[in-house]
Amino acid sequence: MENTEVDNEPDSKKAKIQSAEQPIRCKYFVQRKKRYCKMTVGFGKEYCGEHEPTDRTIDPESGTSDRIPCPLDSKHTVSAVKLEKHLKICNARPPAEQKPYIVPGINCTSDGEESEPLPQTEGVSGVKLSDMPLEELTTLIAKIDRLYDTVEPLIKEQSPRHSILAQELRTEHYGPQTLKHLTQSSALLGLLEQYEFLQNDTAFVEFGAGKGQVAYWLARIVETQLQNCKVLLVDRASHRHKKDNKIETREIVQRVRADIADLELHKVDLLESTKRLVGIGKHLCGSATDLALRCLVRSRAKSVVLMKGCLFALCCHHRCEWRTFAGKQFLLANDITRADFECIVRMVSWAVCGTGRSRDREEDESNDNKQDRCGLTRLQREAIGRKCKRILDVARLNYMVQNGYEAKLKYYVTSEVTLENVCLICVDK
Asked: What pLDDT score does 64 carry?
């Protein structure tokens, strides 16, 4: 027995040493990211605190789970015992003091919309397209076809590349996803150069900056090619591993944590020392694009800084909302009601989401000619989805034209890079 105990003791110590040298990662598979959670776990555990199975976190006295949704952000949970401590450090906690450039809801609607309510029909929010009466759906599709024929945008491919990313795009070990984002960033910066946005005395504002990839390369351009320029990053979330932290010249960059809906851009201190302002966005989902457009238009009327223009990659039209949509006046003028709008933002997914089946299965079953209940093939549905997206984009374009900008839609990358490959370019007249 004594020999056995002596033999086991070194093994136990060895195991502890190994676990200290090589932290054990959580075994929870994050479906959204298609990978396992990277958080480390406590000694003797298999899951991190966030992903610990509920049946293992039961309080023996109360018989209920120890973890509860965070009151500040329900997307994550916290131990009920440690709630008070967590609320002091949670990334979702509100700022200690209200910043002067934060005005809740300032960009949600355009001037005059509250005082003169827009005509609305009963919405169909929450109703699936598959549950709509066939006659209503086919009538709407015919209306979309007619409107598209009258406003069809002549979109040309215009996808230059900026030299600042040339070496980065030749990096061999980058995967396709990384290269896709770098290609998009290079194309957007190339368009900034082509439309002469890259000038001295300019403040560049990246809306929905995320981890700040576009802003990082913009700052590199500012450091090496421009003078008296600033780079402002706007995002409502606090991200880890932000790329803008790697910008060496710290005085040219500032990150503002704010929802675009609440941002009065002309009140941000960083912009006071520049003569002109340019907005840019690489991934402004749905209504975030409309909020950014309104933010620029509103600031243009109140700021002494010249709002030179903006360049926004357009995506995620299914996340547009009627209340915040910038181009609703154009839609109403063309007989697109709120109820129609609610359907259109569902139909846009036909252009990018396919059938939901795997590609191998699609090839085997040859579904291209199979018709749905409206008599449409898969390719016809994709075409209608693209028309819906372009109608929404033209409505936004019309909003910017009405507010004094020359606006265009361009394919800034090919569809092989991404199906969401259209950008809106607005230049002050």
From this structure: 55
